[in-house]
Input
Amino acid sequence: MITRKDGGIAFSKLELPPLGAATFPLSVKSMPRHQSGLRRVSSADLVRNPALWQERALDGPVIITYHGRDRLVLGPIEDVKKASSQVQSHLALEYRLIKAHVAEVYAVLDQDLRFVEVNRNTCEFFQRAEGELIGAKLSSLYPEYNYSTLLARVQRVHETGEADRFEAESVTHPGRYFAFTIYRHPLGAAILAVNVTEKHMLAHQLSILSALSRAAEQIRKVASVRLDSHSRIVLCGGAFHDWTGFTPEDLLHNNVTSIVCTEHRSAVADDVVAVMETQRVVRTDACFVSKSGQSIAVQLAMAPIVEEFDVTGVAIVATKVDLR
Output
């Protein structure tokens, strides 16, 4: 906007000037090369003769400087509208592409908890077409959601505007777990949901295995050892120390064959390699040598430790064998 003040004219950066010209922030470095020779005018000169510079701006953009530094560009308003339309079209296309290709279930619920945006994954999750979901209330389609944690959290985001993250079991798919992210959206509250069922199953299995390991440690005739991919001991149970008399410092990072008696050493080394190469469980008989030099007859069960399809070590369970 141009306002007259004490006979002079000043620009407001918040509104577009008249006469078909507009001022807008622009980095000179981002301009095309053919515009590198743009005319410049100081803000003081612009205030003294605004009509002249507006006329010149209609023929080509004019850079407005302040204390020698480029600040704004004065140019035809049609150019600004065209650039703004192009940006809006690009953003709309990018949004549609992201919504169509994200791996998550994505939906937007308005203040009345009606679907206003969904993606393909959402349709597959609810087994309904997009036309059936848009405009429908989630609780109307699935009454079991009426008192669910999900809708309660969505309503909280509507009220507070603060994003929320949590994990919960699916109401419509019992036994499946999802990690939800809910955040404010111009049309309401957006929901992103990722299937984390496998993570929950692995955590459950891990807790069971941990309990079994702790229970096995209480049986002094059973000992456990973990090796890295180079057959070096990286972890061993308390019973193992009791059997051999070696301290953890004596055993850690040493090759497991260093505590196997000479006649079984080669066979045990071959079995460890076989376990890592074939990823199969191997059982074998051997003898450990204690710190005092005594032989301890054992039966070994070896299994590969596989992470992301790669063998990273070997787990060994040893059981004492009574030779009497």
